[in-house]
Design goal:
The complex is a heterodimer of chains A (316) and B (278).
Chain A (H helix, E strand, L loop, with lengths): L6 H16 L5 H23 L3 H8 L7 H8 L1 E6 L11 E8 L2 E8 L5 H6 L7 H17 L3 E7 L6 H5 L2 H13 L5 E10 H5 L6 E5 L3 E3 L3 H9 L5 H8 L3 H6 L5 E3 L10 H19 L4 H13 L4 E3 L1
Parallel strand pairs in A: 3-4, 4-5, 5-6, 5-7, 6-8
Antiparallel strand pairs in A: 1-2, 2-3
Chain B lengths: L2 H10 L4 E3 L6 E3 H6 L15 H8 L5 E3 L3 E3 L11 H12 L5 E8 L2 E8 L10 H17 L3 E7 L7 H21 L3 E9 L1 H4 L8 E4 L10 H8 L10 H6 L5 E2 L5 H20 L1
Parallel strand pairs in B: 6-7, 7-8, 8-9, 9-10
Antiparallel strand pairs in B: 1-2, 3-5, 5-6
């Protein structure tokens, strides 16, 4: 599966994969060809992904092959031990949560998972959590706090689910409580926007001491489709809406909303899961090393100061 | 365009009559105003502008705070109209500087801080200024030991300030922490409509949550839900009475009884602490 503008790159990728299968050590000719193709791939992908417009960036962030929370959980952490349920209503599979080892340190990991296969996507509701998902996240975050464990969240959702059950069970209340709980958590919290940071449903896992974002990930107040429909009164104005909202990683960094942009190897994460995981591990480790020096009080203070600064206004 | 905008436009032409949205009765506007914008026939609660709301709750002589914090246009946003223009227009139409007013004053005999939103100002949407004013209100209330009441109406986060509006959800939610830390009462009054980013942040963090009759309250708007689930929503869904039944709000209070109710709750909630301190 590839996006329209990735056609050329996808063909190149197929050639490389095929050649890798056919190649046995010592075949000079194939080796040279492989080298050439790989060089070419690197060059072209860098060219392609550095020039994307914001709407194309949104499509890369939603790419069907893009690694999801579970991929990162398996590649970045060891012994992930999933915990289930909110102890009130049910277990929301749009949010995965549990404990795992990160460089030998136990941490709590909470992520939004969209699912890969059709069946899994349905089960996970395409990564759109219900209130019980946020309540599970709150429960695990509180647990981590009690054990003194750092918390790492992985954000990838189109948004909190807009449905009857979600409203009946207090979607607003669950998100609000999540914002509040994460805000005052007495352990280090690092949030990573790995794909789609869709509105309040994303922010509910995004109140952290450090917020990281992958190069092609996006984070916005409303989906480009929603923004276009409301402000332009035209669903097709997604390009304009994407540009106006300043939702790319670079824009967010310039606005001071994220602390660092994690580069994506080969131009986009979906060409190299391991490479992406390696970089994420490096950035997470750096963040945690700084944060682990702070006392619980300092951690809360650090988060308050961080979010207090958010916003632009004039003052007479 | 909000209901009130229509009101104001008509007012310019000195219209004296309007029709109730709900029961369709013809209403005499001065009478409706005197009745706090509640239809005298069917008790339908029209939107109440921020200033009138303050007048209905506080004694005269209240003081507006943080009015020097004014909106900017950080993204240089332009949809079908530049954001700067929208702001100017909203300011002219409502006579307000932003969608939230913060006032310190007397609710009967109790000194309180009240944050009031106005739906006429870009749908009561929350941008940087609403976030900052609310956050400061929390800090101020905490420093002075004043209870905080937030009377809310909002379509959600303001799209024209993009991600910065979203971040106000985090900021306002953390603001509430200043009050909780000291055991200062924080009561929210949810009026029609309260949705989106405001609903999912400081609105639902109230110690006690009051809703006005018939108010639409929810995370997603009904249209978005209908489009998502491809079904018609049941009658009364997301209305105040429905939320009461589902356990999401503490009470549904008629606008005319709001002052009395708030006073009683705040008196009860602050009584013992004051007693201990004396």
């Amino acid at each position: 599966m590839h996006l329209e503008f990735e056609k050329e790159l996808s063909e190149l990728h197929q050639k490389i994969q095929q050649l890798k299968r056919l190649y046995t050590i010592g075949e000079k000719e194939k080796e040279a060809e492989l080298r050439y193709l790989q060089r070419e791939f690197k060059k072209r992908s860098r060219q392609l992904y550095s020039k994307l417009d914001p709407w194309e960036r949104v499509q890369v962030a939603r790419h069907p092959n893009r690694p999801h929370a579970m991929d990162f959980i398996n590649l970045v952490f060891k012994n992930f031990t999933e915990l289930h349920g909110d102890r009130c209503f049910g277990d929301d599979k749009a949010i995965v949560a549990g404990f795992a080892y990160f460089y030998g340190m136990p941490v709590a990991v909470i992520g939004q998972e969209k699912g890969r296969t059709t069946k899994e996507k349905m089960e996970r509701n395409f990564g759109m959590p219900h209130p019980e998902g946020y309540r599970k996240a709150i429960r695990i975050a509180r647990l981590a706090e009690r054990y003194g464990m750092p918390v790492i969240t992985l954000i990838d959702t189109p948004g909190a689910y807009p449905g009857i059950g979600a409203e009946e069970r207090g979607q607003s209340e669950a998100i609000a409580q999540s914002l509040y709980t994460f805000g005052y958590l007495r352990v280090p919290v690092v949030a990573v926007v790995i794909g789609e940071g869709g509105s309040g449903g994303a922010l509910a896992l995004g109140v952290a001491n450090r917020v990281l974002i992958f190069e092609n990930a996006v984070y916005s107040v409303i989906s480009p489709e929603g923004c276009a429909a409301i402000l332009w009164k035209d669903q097709n104005k997604v390009k304009e809406a994407s540009r106006a909202m300043k939702l790319t990683a670079r824009d967010l960094f310039n606005l001071g909303v994220v602390d660092a942009v994690v580069p994506e190897p080969e131009g986009a994460l979906h060409w190299d899961y391991e490479g992406g995981a390696r970089l994420l591990r490096y950035f997470l480790r750096k963040c945690l090393r700084d944060l682990l020096k702070l006392s619980p009080e300092e951690l809360v203070e650090d988060r308050i100061r961080k979010f207090e600064r958010m916003g632009v206004f004039t003052k007479a | 365009m909000g209901l009130l905008d229509r009101f104001r436009k008509r007012e310019e032409k000195e219209a004296l009559w309007t029709k109730c949205e709900n029961c369709k009765s013809i209403l005499y506007i001065p009478e409706l105003r005197a009745n706090l914008n509640v239809c005298p026939k069917c008790q339908y609660h029209f939107n109440l502008p921020a200033k009138e709301r303050l007048g209905s709750l506080l004694e005269e002589g209240y003081k507006l705070l943080f009015e020097d914090i004014k909106p900017a246009d950080p993204l240089n946003f332009k949809d079908t109209k530049p954001y700067k223009e929208r702001l100017k227009q909203a300011q002219e139409q409502t006579g307000l500087t932003e969608a939230m007013l913060v006032a310190e004053g007397l609710l009967k005999d109790l000194q309180v801080l009240i944050a009031v939103m106005d739906f006429g100002f870009i749908g009561g949407s929350m941008g940087s200024v609403v976030g900052e004013r609310f956050y400061r209100a929390c800090k101020y209330a905490s420093q002075k030991g004043l209870p905080l009441v937030a009377v809310i109406t909002s379509g959600g986060a303001r799209m024209q300030e993009g991600i910065l509006s979203l971040m106000q959800m985090a900021k306002t939610s953390m603001g509430v922490g200043y009050l909780k830390e000291k055991g200062i009462p924080y009561i929210t009054v949810l009026t029609d409509p309260t949705t989106g980013g405001v609903s999912a942040s400081f609105a639902f963090l109230g110690d006690i949550i009051i809703a006005e009759p018939g108010a639409l309250i929810g995370f997603a708007g009904p249209r978005v839900i209908e489009q998502t689930i491809k079904q018609k929503l049941p009658e009364g869904f997301q209305r105040a009475e429905f939320l009461l039944e589902k356990g999401m709000v503490d009470m549904v209070v008629h606008r005319k009884e709001l002052k009395e109710t708030l006073h009683r709750l705040l008196h009860m909630a602050t009584y013992w602490k004051r007693y201990v301190e004396v």
